[in-house]
Amino acid sequence: MDRNCIGILMPGDMGHAVGATLIDHGYRVVTALNGRSDNSRMLAERAGLTDTGSIDAVVSEADVIPSILPPAAAEGLASEVSASMRRTGKISIYVDCNAVSPDTVCRIEGIITDAGGLCVDVGIVGLRPGRGAPPRFYVSGPDVSAMTTLDGTGIQVVSAGDTVGQASAVKMVYAGLTKGTWTLHLSVLLAAQRLGVLETYLNELEFSQKSALNAMRSSLPRLPADSARWVGEMEQIAETLGSAGLPSGIHEGAADIFRILARTPFASETRETIDRDRTLEDALGVYGDYIDPK
Fold it and tell me: What's the pTM?
């Protein structure tokens, strides 16, 4: 099978950057922009992706199709690609790169294999290509060769096992720590603000937890741009922990924190338009107004 044509679905912040680095390494990368936002169209154009106009066209042209989109849409897109494989008669390798639970990706595998395709499970850890160290693409499944051949093309491909679900498990427990920590930080800060002790609390953190405070100042003012799609990711993490016999409430609460941020005016920002000068105090002053739905 010729794997030099790759179909990126969908070209958001991570997807367009993956497409761009693959193009730089000699691959032809196609996508489908029908129904996509102006921002996605701009990112795809910047990356040099070829818009085929439809998912059927992507399936017809591409032998490997990575899916990179918000987790709430992951199963729906797999169903669209599965139906397209049936319509076109073209069997492709479907690479689910989404932040979903092992149970969810196993359902996605069933959707794809029912149409005759092969599903590769991928969990992405790290920033998009071009922003520091290459992101790690953890891969699992009975045949991951379509991804291992991409190792070194601006991404690092790392084996997580031979069973679909293992790569997603790595992503879930990793994001459970990173994004879960951000929501914990924000929860205690907003509580301190509402209880009238924010300044005292920040002073204490400056004295005894300076590294944590520095992390808060660096990350928390920028969270709203991604908050809406991270709600679904926290729900997937909660499901993952529950399936492992652990309490899921921590990340159910994390999803609620991201819902608060998604209601703020800052949520209309993209990673391209985030106000980099916004301070932690500025952000908290707005976030607190959206704790209760209006």
Answer: 0.94
